Amino acid sequence: MESIYNLKLNDLENFLINNGGKKYQAAQVFDWLYKKRITKFKDMTNLNKETIKLLELNFQIDELEIVKKQSAEQTHKYLFKLSDGSLIEAVLMMHNYGNSICVSSQVGCNMGCLFCESGKLKKVRNLLPSEMILPILMIEKDLNLRISSVVIMGIGEPFDNYLNVIKFIEIINEPKYLSIGARHITVSTCGVVPKIKEFSDFPLQVNLAISFHAPDDKLRSELMKINKVYNIAELIDSIKEYILKTNRRVTIEYVMIDNVNDKDEQAKSLAKLFKGLNVYINLIPYNETSDPSFKKSKRIMQFYDILKKENINVTVRREFGGDIDAACGQLKAKEVNE
Ligand code: SF4
pTM for the full model? Predict the structure, then answer.
């Protein structure tokens, strides 16, 4: 049966109107689901019996099973089981400005980035909006806190599951309910150029991050298969177009790998690519995995200094959860291999 969490407010309004209910009841249901966190239709006491029956016959209020949880000081990593037995993960990070969650968008991922554990787990299927929303609700309940920002940066390529991701964003952004502000939502893509173009027409002011990781086509194609389809020139053109249309700053993610992409010349080439563009480059210390071919760079600050000198906006991401495997896909990879 369809999860009620797959519906936007106006989907539920239309459903009720078309099935003998009233439009305003959709707001009441959303209030029970997202504010009062009720998990049974029969407990929605301001709905009449007919509406409760109608909802029960057509939708379920589902939950996810927590299979595993790993916690370090400010990071909690969850592995959830979906109704078909698939496993997904989500990571909660506590910052001094609020709690942020990293959600997955697919079961597995076909993008095959060389440095990524998830890339080794082939895509099984796309996640539904409900399967991206439920980790938020489950973690909020488990830790008794509220989540104020969402990054879609877990397992999967969000733009390979475009429509479900868009719907997910619209539902969590719905004012009065989860109400997570668009500016507190970030979508991260490895560079699916046509979807970056499409996303520039999306009316909500959501943040866009691009996983970049290499300043030349040869290296980028070795590290990220997507570069063989859309090369750096095409990707940068789409970023320029996005900035022009939305007037929004784009984040460029650059994971720093020892002796692979951390040399001075590479910092200079990267600066050249983005000079004058409204971007900021986020240098991410590589989270070492079981794969011995990649190690964390020891040159992050030298790289940072070169970019700074070239007047590029640059930050170094604080390390989260290296000790609890909170890097993209790592908890899941372990569980599957065990
Ligand atoms: S880095 Fe992201 S896009 Fe690349 S393989 Fe991993 S999950 Fe997929």
Answer: 0.93
Which residue reads 């082939």 in tokens?
Answer: 122
- What spacing in Å lies between the alpha carbon of 8 and ligand 1's midpoint? 28
pLDDT digits (tens, 9 = 90+) for 8-21: 999 999 999 999 99
Q: What CATH number does the domain containing 198 carry? A: 3.20.20.70
The tally of CA atoms less than 13 A away on the side-chain side of residue 77 is 22
Distance 169 CA to ligand 1 centre (A): 20
For residues 90 and 171, membership in a common domain is answered with: yes
Question: Which residue type is seen at 216?
Answer: D
DSSP state of 47: S
Catalytic residues: 89, 328
pLDDT digits (tens, 9 = 90+) for 37-48: 999 999 999 999
Last residue of a domain, one of 40, 60, 80: 60
**What is the rounded distance in angstroms from the CA atom of residue 28 to the CA atom of residue 83?**
26
Q: Within this chain, do residues 130 and 271 fall inside the same structural domain, yes or no? A: yes
- Rounded CA-CA distance 130/109 in Å is 19
